UniProtKB/TrEMBL annotation:
TauD/TfdA-like domain segment(s): 89-429
Keyword Cytoplasm attributed: no
Record key words, sorted: Dioxygenase, Iron, Metal-binding, Oxidoreductase
GO MF, one example: dioxygenase activity
Cleaved signal peptide residues: none
Full protein name: TauD/TfdA-like domain-containing protein
């Protein structure tokens, strides 16, 4: 018989019906005739490995095909750069195709892990059927000794600025649901109304009501981290279950620069901490390699009465933060003093990685501590602001089934968008507080 026969000839849906289903979902091409094994470069699932070449009768849909000798080739994992407009300076991010995350080989996991650490963001396509449990297990695989959600139980503190935005999946507490709209039931959560965080709830001033659906802002640039008692998670996974269609918005910085960008509704915006470091002056690079930041105790409660800058990159200083007497008990040893730069464990590159809203003080290289909150924030804003200009921002255009894995110790990200109540969005987020501290520029853990 002549071959090969490709999926487009036999219809992919028929090929997918061959044999036992989960492994065979990988099957893309069926080759017939005198074939070599060279399509098996990336290991096929073990159940297929047992009989890659033997006499078989294959049932394809309702037809029976008798094949004397066959081999099944597996469409292997494929990594491509994200498509970035030519006007953008974004040089990070990849898309990954042909992955069955619930049956991931060690080799394929290594490829994904490498991609996340080298490219900061990996968008794994076509994962619509992925369960919360599988999402948790994949996320945990990057940091296997950890098991607690990145914010621990502090998320439930009513006064925390995070409290209204996330709902915990009862049977998988490391996974949170975020989004917009009313849902009768989702993964054991009943009658839930999700509200997409709107900048008017967090920024000092807001876009006028009449422009609200056309224009939006970065809500709050951050890394996912409790920044008190718990170490920052290494990896966050974000899964698009339901994505509103069509609309785009103008993202405004409203900071006097006139900068703005066109973004899809409900994008998540990412910037690279590595790039943020790279574009600093040599003098600033030296400073950020040597200085540290002290985060507030219970930062998300502490900041709750304060208001953000219009670019979402840190808070304004109006003396509104809660005093210690109004916070839950503080254990001095749980206060986090972390480097300004984190070292990438795979590439060794440095990322400027500061959660601007949660910072309370700067520990200067000469040993002094800068505690004037306005001065602290102004300095950090000066260092970080160039890195969030439009050419450095990647606004992901979500498609249902996208599972984004990002290096939470190498990128900052933010929610974006203003929705009507009818525009439904449902996402799942998972990360876990690491048992290891972050890697500083000196190679030490903090
Ligand atoms: Fe986040």
């Amino acid at each position: 018989m002549a071959g090969p026969y490709y999926a487009k000839d036999l219809r992919q849906s028929e090929l997918l019906s061959i044999g036992r289903h989960r492994e065979e979902a990988h099957i893309w091409t069926l080759k017939v005739g005198e074939l070599t094994y060279n399509k098996f470069d990336s290991a096929p699932p073990s159940t297929i490995q047992h009989h890659p070449l033997q006499r078989k009768k294959l049932v394809v849909s309702r037809r029976t095909i008798n094949i004397s000798i066959f081999t099944m080739a597996i469409k292997s994992l494929e990594i491509r750069p994200l498509s970035i407009p030519s006007t953008s300076a974004v040089d990070f991010g990849v898309e990954i195709h042909n992955v069955d995350l619930e049956n991931l080989t060690e080799d394929d996991f290594d490829l994904i892990q490498n991609a996340v650490y080298k490219s900061h963001i990996a968008v794994i396509k076509n994962q619509a059927g992925l369960s919360p449990k599988a999402q948790y297990e994949l996320t945990k695989r990057f940091d296997p000794t950890t098991d607690n959600y990145g914010h621990g139980k502090t998320l439930n503190a009513k006064r925390s600025v995070l409290h209204p935005d996330l709902k915990t999946i009862p049977h998988q507490p490391q996974v949170q649901v975020i989004g917009n709209g009313y849902y009768d039931e989702y993964e054991g959560l009943k009658n839930i109304t999700l509200k997409h965080p709107h900048h008017k709830k967090f920024h000092q001033d807001a876009i006028l009501e009449e422009d609200d659906l056309n224009a939006t802002r970065f809500f709050r640039w951050h890394m996912d981290a409790a920044l008190y008692a718990l170490n920052p998670p290494k990896i966050t996974s974000l899964m698009a279950v339901k994505v509103p269609e069509g609309r785009r918005q103008t993202l405004r910085y409203d900071d006097g620069t006139g900068e703005e960008m066109d973004v899809p509704l409900g994008t998540t915006a990412f910037v690279s901490g590595q790039n943020m470091y790279r574009i600093l002056s040599e003098e600033d690079k030296k400073f950020v390699r040597e200085a540290k930041v002290e985060y507030a105790a219970h930062p998300y409660i502490w900041m709750s009465p304060a208001k953000s800058r219009s670019d979402g990159l840190g808070m304004l200083s109006e003396g509104l933060e809660l005093p210690n007497s109004e916070l839950p008990p503080i254990n001095e040893k749980d206060i986090k003093i972390l480097p300004m730069c984190y070292k990438n464990p795979v590439t060794g590159n440095l990322a400027l990685q500061i959660h601007p809203s949660a910072v309370k003080a700067i520990h200067l290289p000469n040993g002094e501590i800068m505690t004037d909150l306005k001065e602290v924030r102004d300095l950090i804003h000066r260092l970080q602001r160039p890195g969030i200009s439009p050419q450095h921002v990647y606004p992901h255009d979500w498609v249902e089934g996208d599972l984004v894995l990002f290096n939470n110790q190498g990128v900052l990200h933010t929610v974006v968008g203003a929705f009507t109540p009818e525009e439904k969005r449902l996402f799942r987020q998972c990360n876990m507080a690491s048992n290891e501290g972050v890697l500083g520029p000196d190679g030490k853990r903090y």
